[in-house]
## 1
Amino acid sequence: MDLNAIYLVSDSIGETADVVIRSALFQFETENYQLKKYSYVQTTEEIDEICAKAADDDHAMIFYTFVKKEMADYMKDRIEKAGLIGVDIYSPILTGLGQLFQLPAKEKPGINRQLNADYFNRVEAIEFSVKYDDGRDPRGIEKADIILIGVSRTSKTPLSIYLANKNVKVANIPLFPESKPPKEIFSIAPERIIGLVNSPKKLNEVRKERLKTLGLPPSASYAGMERILEELEYADQIMKQIGCEIIDVSNKAIEETADHILHYMDVMNINRKQL
Amino acid sequence: MDLNAIYLVSDSIGETADVVIRSALFQFETENYQLKKYSYVQTTEEIDEICAKAADDDHAMIFYTFVKKEMADYMKDRIEKAGLIGVDIYSPILTGLGQLFQLPAKEKPGINRQLNADYFNRVEAIEFSVKYDDGRDPRGIEKADIILIGVSRTSKTPLSIYLANKNVKVANIPLFPESKPPKEIFSIAPERIIGLVNSPKKLNEVRKERLKTLGLPPSASYAGMERILEELEYADQIMKQIGCEIIDVSNKAIEETADHILHYMDVMNINRKQL
């Protein structure tokens, strides 16, 4: 059977279409498709070419995000004339927002990647969170919006990066019995600290996996139950001493834990974008 | 004037709706709105409550992403009955893909955050790229899919993280005349190295900004033209010696440069997800 061709067409990079389609694709039990991405499509000639290509494919479908109404309309017309199927992702949303605001859309492609203050804040938050990953520099604790603490393999790093993408400056500090955590975590406001815990079973699994990746034997004490329980007990003491929020990350995707933290920050009135 | 209320309703976190709406909002010259996010909406009673709240607002609009057709239909019906405006983001896409594949959708909320192999690969790529940021450990060079080199303030860190989110393992290495780069960058395949350059003017601006953030005087030599030209000259020599791809990042958003690199990787047949 021929591969289904999914065309993603955009007048900009096409990142939004990409996110939406990839997310929707999870709802189908098939890998029998090929994504064909067309970025920076700015002329009707290019639309003609893309539609001609899609018409040549046996099974094709076109998803498009144009911020210019004229281009979206042209695309719709060409798709119909070629007897193809297409979905206009952006127009219903832009029309809706236009109705709500009683304002015309700017129709400027790529405007969401303009180098504005929000963009720079996000880049800064990412650089911050990479810099203060894994307790590299305790000075990060006082400057961060949120400090994550936890034993090894409680998702501290990917969580920090995910939150940084949401404009949160994060410092993360590993906890292990052999080394005292930096004293700063006992002096700052406990609301800014989040303790991450994971189930012993899960830690055992992910640590064994980790050892495998590192080319080490899975029997190393790092992945053993005794060591894991000792570390968790130690971390529990520290977290209780601080009196911080504790989140169990076992069986939670990064996005879910991050969502929990963002909600918590809202409730506790912890600002982002402050340094 | 009352704030326009934009409701984002999802049977999962609502991340997809969030991305699409935030991107579309850039097309309007207004900040007169408030996002109200409702996550994990799983029952018709919750839909009733949300619509009742929206009907109480003076200016409200509902965007929703439900993977269950029944819930999307119920939402549509309630919105119409309440005289509200709403946009169903997901259904046209899911219907389209269903037509293309000739398959029913799974209708399982949150399935795109399931802890599958792709998810773990992405988390691993992020951890990798944080670990091998800023030349911290030259062993990363041989293990990385792509190595970014460049002088300070050529977006090495945010680019690494963005690419890691796309499953690319990145190591980045800063270049400056006082320190020889790790010898590994001259021995690996040059196709895996990307040299990042920035215009002297831009570097001058962003470095002055950087100094301000660090509480240092903007007159420090780091941000001075003489120093910048010296560094760029040095970097140019190294890049020519390697014979690597060079990208000018001035006035490019991270997404654009990353897009360029992903294309380049495709063309050069550089695999991701390999270690």
## 2
Amino acid sequence: MKPVKVGLCGLGTVGSGTFNVMQRNASEITRRAGRPIMIEQVGARRDNPDCDTTAVLVSRDIFEVVNNPEIDIIVELIGGYDTAYELVMQAIANGKHVVTANKALIAVRGNEIFQAAREKGVVVAFEAAVAGGIPIIKSIREGLTANQINWLAGIINGTGNYILTHMRDEGRTFEDVLAEAQTLGYAEADPTFDVEGIDAAHKLTILASIAFGVPLQFDHVYTEGISRISAEDVAQADALGYAIKHLGIARRVANGLELRVHPTLIPKQRLLANVDGVKNAVMAHGDAVGPTLYYGAGAGSEPTASSVVADIVDVVREMGADVASRVPYLAFAEPNRDVEILPMEAIETAYYLRLVAVDRPGVLARVATILSEQGISIEAIIQKDANDADLVPIILLTHRTRESEMNEAIRQLEALADIAGDVMRIRVESLNDQ
Amino acid sequence: MKPVKVGLCGLGTVGSGTFNVMQRNASEITRRAGRPIMIEQVGARRDNPDCDTTAVLVSRDIFEVVNNPEIDIIVELIGGYDTAYELVMQAIANGKHVVTANKALIAVRGNEIFQAAREKGVVVAFEAAVAGGIPIIKSIREGLTANQINWLAGIINGTGNYILTHMRDEGRTFEDVLAEAQTLGYAEADPTFDVEGIDAAHKLTILASIAFGVPLQFDHVYTEGISRISAEDVAQADALGYAIKHLGIARRVANGLELRVHPTLIPKQRLLANVDGVKNAVMAHGDAVGPTLYYGAGAGSEPTASSVVADIVDVVREMGADVASRVPYLAFAEPNRDVEILPMEAIETAYYLRLVAVDRPGVLARVATILSEQGISIEAIIQKDANDADLVPIILLTHRTRESEMNEAIRQLEALADIAGDVMRIRVESLNDQ
């Protein structure tokens, strides 16, 4: 059978992994795909010493690859928004199928990309955009196709999970572990995308669309990072039987859809609570199947390449199928535009609060009264011994309540003369996996 | 688009779940599949009060369903070998696609079934045959298609996992928990298939074929059950930092393939060690992706139906693809018949041994000498206090060694005058998931 010809754009971390996996496992991949798949041309600004490209056409101009009429599938691994967008749109205009690992591009401009691809009848595949090597797009989009998804929750940023894991295991501060992660190459020099939750929000946007059949709506994701989490919060959570994880959560509720990224206390015995270091995991709960979980490497050269190459093989298969028989880009033939993404004020969850009070009689009663007046019921309250400055840390766990009521309670708490500084608030979710 | 017509054979636990999920989620399934899928006819010996079949043609003779020319896809959910085999082969002969949840049928007669299906150009799908609702076939067969799989290990029998979980959590005996599981409906009146590992061996046979591209070889799986595990073994393992899980393990080694089902000590911090109750999980380790894990309900009406319906949708899609573009039944276009399944004597693993010695001087030295003479090195040895009968339990952990050498050592240990009764041997695996 005639080989399928791939144009590989980008030869950085993921590009080099893709190149090497395709060379090393060529015979197994051919046996699985039923026909040979070869890299016809590589487009990269510079060579990568990890790849032996001597037998392959190499171009310094990625647009030469996109315009090469021999090529069937363009693999976009250059990252970023602008050039990547141009590249992908040109590939589609040229009638080529596209495989990409670019979560930002898909989350932010996916709707227009899929529209263009639909009009040209080409496939755009993006398994590697979410959770690296874990086949999470395929599992939700095809494996759980019988289900109405109730909710999903995932550790979908390895850097954040690395930092939280080491804060917990070693009692260290956020800043300290971040600096170490930067030295080890697990965090960027500018870590904003990872630690402030933007990268996780990109991925959650994609997961939610394929799970719930809604258009990509990155702008509607509530996004909160982990930079305010203190060593004390980690220790207090642990003492209460919880781990703090940075989660992306999407949940179907009666009046719409919750889409939120934030630090979350989850019970220690949950599998998700035991996903440590740079690893990723996504839990998806379907009405028929119940809870399911998918775990693996969320980033890295060859793990991400594993998903890129799986996509290439899927595209090769879809090339032999009529367009109506292909898996829709976002799982559903038509996205449902009538589902409201709820504002954060409308969601309901439980809360962990940590406040610092001046040590005088009645302070606990005043705190409890404010919560009670907002209809917030308390599950646990722990008052520590006063420190040298006569300040008393108070830790609270509440039952489920509405975020708007909690916002009002926190406003009133912070206005109390007894309370020093800001109230620390972390959301608490049960995420039952049994 | 013309609806695809399904014939559902069997209306028991999984059949009724399939019927109900397809009715309840019909609109979401249609939106995903891109065309309506309807149950045209049900074949079942009796009605199921959980299903409202009034709008559907019902036949008491499943072969009427298989011979109905209107039907595109036959769903075999009657279980067992003989009638199910006849049914599936007749469906294939009639040019119909087949979806089945029948692990025994696929593991034992899959090679002939796939051969017949290949000749007729029809699809046979069997996601529900392994690990219930977990999309494990799809994840390994398609999601990890870029990888050479190094090993996989799974908790793939919910009954066994339920028993071991309750033995550990409540310090109870095997017989005691089994009786409870039978009362609760988690175990059959004759529990042999589950507790002696035959069911797990069926599933491991299938997983190994799709992971390693070898023919189905149920007869070559080493199979050992959990009925000899005592409450003391569970407690000793726990004290040493291990959980005992009943695992199916397949591993590629230099000279062949290991295929084995047996109780296994694994470190407590592994995710697999924390998969409890009736839940299933499979860990698959690929050369590119590293360790990945898939978790969920391994049995039950609607979880299993989730996989059956996902298969139906996949078959609908494959109906629109040329035969060469379909995913091969066992992942590879042609299975590799040259890979040897190693006899159990040839595998290497670490071991937990529990022996009961007569309390007299030198017994520990004699035990250590026997192991040393077989080249077996000891990681830990624990001698307990003597009981009333002057018997001393000795617990040993060894480093990795060859099974044949361990067999010889156990033979010699049991021949010692100092040793009372049989030596209990449980294999120990690290199964690193980081």
